Amino acid sequence: MASLGVLTGGGDCPGLNAAIRAIVRGGVSQGYEVVGMRHGFRGLARGETVTLDRNSVAGILPRGGTILGSSSYDCFREERGVELVTMTTRALELDGVVAIGGEGTLGIAHRLHAEHGFPVVGVPKTIDNDIAGTDVTIGFDTAVHICTEAIDRLHTTAESHNRVMVVEVMGRNTGWIAAAAGVAGGADIILVPELPTTIEEVADHVRKRHARGRNFSIVVAAEGYRLTRESGEQEAPVVREHDEYGYERLGGIGRVIADELAGLTGFDTRVTVLGHVQRGGTPTARDRLLATRLGLKAVEIASAGRWGHMAAVRGNEIVEVPLEEATAAPRSVPRAWLESGRVVA
Ligand code: F6P
After folding, report:
1. Mean pLDDT for the chain overall
2. Per the residue annotation, which of 128, 130, 141, 287 is the catalytic one?
3. Does residue 317 surpass a pLDDT of 80?
4. 268 is annotated as an active-site residue
5. Average pLDDT estimate for 223-243
6. Is the Cβ atom of 172 under 6 angstroms away from ligand 1?
7. Residue of the CA atom closest to atom 15 of ligand 1
8. Which domains are seen in the chain, by residue range?
């Protein structure tokens, strides 16, 4: 019997279970036995598996997280990692593997295919929405909803106390969540890694609003925003810690911005860091639908043997793109989006 592996790697997000469910149900209907790998590529290297059938994925559609577990295990950075992955794939008699992931996981999938001919298909997920080759990734819509609701709530308390509220959202390389939730929530200032807005410009905007009688302001900042000064000086992103491979974990720019703004304007300022709340809970209907469509497409790509590709969205269509294209560089927020945020602020 043909056999297909499925794994979720990197940071979790709402919609992963919907994708797993679609891959299992789509796979079973194509005659595959579907095997889940525990905790991403780590499960594939160590042979930690779980057999998935129609029943085992019943009821998981609205559940956040991933029933398979996830990790950032990188077989290229572990001793004998690639060898273990290929050996286990052979031992389990898998025809191929569907890897649901973001920048890191899809990068590993691409290298495995390009350098070792490994049979893998990608599915793009990350709340950051920064994967090239697709218009949108699983998890983004839910994160934007969560952040927009938070911004709405912060408006009422900001207004009551005449405060400047700085909201820090996720977004390492790009500011998709900040831009989308900022516009949807009516933020006054949106700070993203793509645009070097200076802290003096922000202070000036806040002062002008307050002078016009708007006695509060909401500033939304992506965690990857780099503090920039009028002098041209730009600080490095704020790093909280490093992971086991030395990869930077960001977080803390909200506090830096708030302190700078309080110093420049004298206004009462508070910080809210939304953190992993953005990745938790039930996926929106849009994310469930997206995950289902991408999952089914991944099975179609796998059954046609078109390894080294990723299921993707272009407009309203689900398409396939080479993993090489998807992993070349992060996809930035277009300038027009950011300008529209400024116009309506
Ligand atoms: O890439 C998704 C993401 O949520 C980033 O926005 C964030 O920087 C990172 O993951 C946080 O990762 P961790 O779960 O390791 O703290």
Report:
1. 97
2. 128
3. yes
4. no
5. 96
6. yes
7. 11
8. 3-139+283-326 (3.40.50.450), 143-279 (3.40.50.460)
